[in-house]
Amino acid sequence: MSRLPSVAAPLDAEERRGKPAVVCYPVETLPVADMDLMERARGTLEKVDEVIVPPRDARSFRVPQGHFFRIVSIEGAQVGDLNLWNADDLSERFFSGKTRALHATHVTTGDRLWSTLPYLRPMATITHDTLGWYGWDRDGSGVHDVIGTRCDPYTNRLLSGGDYHHCCHSNLTRALAAEKHLSVTEAEPHIHDVLNVFMCTGFTQDTHQYFMKASPVRPGDFIEFFAEIDLLGALSACPGGDCSATHSSDAAACYPLKVEILRADPQILDGWAPPSRNAYPRTHR
Prior knowledge:
Helix content is 16%, strand content 28%. By secondary structure, the protein is of the alpha+beta class.
């Protein structure tokens, strides 16, 4: 896409461009997870449930607070789109934008998934990531992004003129509708921007457009989370497969994903408490 300037640069253009970058949200006072406690708990994990997410579809799952859950690659390179809600209140849901602002464009072990305003508290903490070695590649891309919104049938119609009903947005809508006994029309407003699990993404260096490339995930890889509150989740096995070429179609090879729910020895978590909702009094004055 062309980004040619429409006006001549002023004489002090380089001075203006040369101002120092300032981190928007200094996080030195941000509450951090007790990773030592969670690591001890990880040593006692016992699987209590699992859900298989079929290719080009989504499934819901529940995780009690203080439990762990894993998203696991089981057959082939496959990315997933994750939504999370407070299991008792759909108005509190994952806030990808604030998670990105507080952590980074891509998340890994030690980062937390934050909920929407006015709650703004950790919903889950990433406790293990077998792709944590990937870091940043020569294209500037990383894994597990909180920048992409999810593939959806509206954008697909806008760009292609056709309808495709297995975009992640639609998959997540059907999964939530089935879980909560809602119509898809009622469920759809609760679907939100996702954590793109296993997806390898970045921004092009010339036009700064969002790009995807083949995910480095392989069978046996997983990302693991500690549930800070009672969670309802939904995961879509993206129709893009490993997202190396396309999405929103049946062209890519796609594979199932597995969600495992795990329980730790409760004695290790004795004294741990879920995070409180944000203390701002909502006076706005």
